[in-house]
Amino acid sequence: MKPLVVFYSRTGVTKQVGEALAHALNCESEELLDKKKRSGPLGFARSGRDARAKKLTTLEEITYDPALYDLVILGTPIWGGTLSSAVRTYIANNKAKFKRVAFFCTQGGTKSQPLFDEMEALCEQPPVNVLALQQKEVKAAAYQEKVRQFVDRLQAP
Ligand SMILES: Cc1cc2nc3c(=O)[nH]c(=O)nc-3n(C[C@H](O)[C@H](O)[C@H](O)COP(=O)(O)O)c2cc1C
């Protein structure tokens, strides 16, 4: 299996999980960079608005071609119950190149299934696995066992 981890992170929580997954899978990771300003109170408000409107954004150029990987593991923070604009844009631009997909998210709350259903629809294929983590468990490093189980299932024959 040749996986690629792709994530967006506004404040570092999803990045921490993405990097842990890439480390556990010994694979490349791509952090998506959004050209739109997302920091500060205005960035926060804009992010929620853009997500709820399902708006696309402009990304910095990506490094890795997803067509060269047999599994793309996509990670996003939940914004307004849905995907961050950066991950929505990455999927729109690259979905034709995905062979198989898996999803992960980080969130303040606990409701992740609608997000995963939407990601499945946008990717036009079901994920081989999903992982939802709360921001507070990532910050407490309590997520490592869940990351390990997620990776074990990906690597199962
Ligand atoms: C604009 C915005 C909207 C959010 N909406 C939700 C939400 O609908 N549900 C939820 O559980 N968390 C929500 N959150 C919390 C984030 O999903 C959570 O803090 C996440 O771990 C942040 O990840 P990051 O540090 O990688 O950006 C929202 C955060 C932001 C900035």
Describe the structure.
This protein has 157 residues and is an alpha/beta fold. The protein has six helices and five strands. Strands 2-1-3-4-5 form a five-stranded parallel sheet, with helices on both faces. α1 packs across α6. The longest helix has 13 residues. The protein is globular and about 45 Å long. The mean pLDDT is 96. The structure holds flavin mononucleotide. Flavin mononucleotide binds next to α1, α2 and β4.
Strand order of the largest sheet: 2-1-3-4-5
- Following the backbone from N to C, one meets helices and strands in this order, namely EHEHEHEHEHH
How many beta strands in the DSSP annotation?
5
Give a quick account of the main beta sheet: strands, pairing sense, barrel closure: 5 strands, parallel
Sum up the overall morphology in one term.
globular
User: Whole-Å distance between the termini?
Assistant: 10 Å
Low-confidence spans: none
Mean pLDDT: 96
Report the portion of residues in β strands: 15-25%
What is the CA-based Rg, rounded? Answer: 14 Å
**Number of H- or I-type helical stretches:** 6
Classify the helix fraction into a percent range.
Answer: 40-55%
Features:
single chain, 157 residues, alpha/beta, five-stranded parallel beta sheet, 6 helices, 41% helix, globular, binds flavin mononucleotide
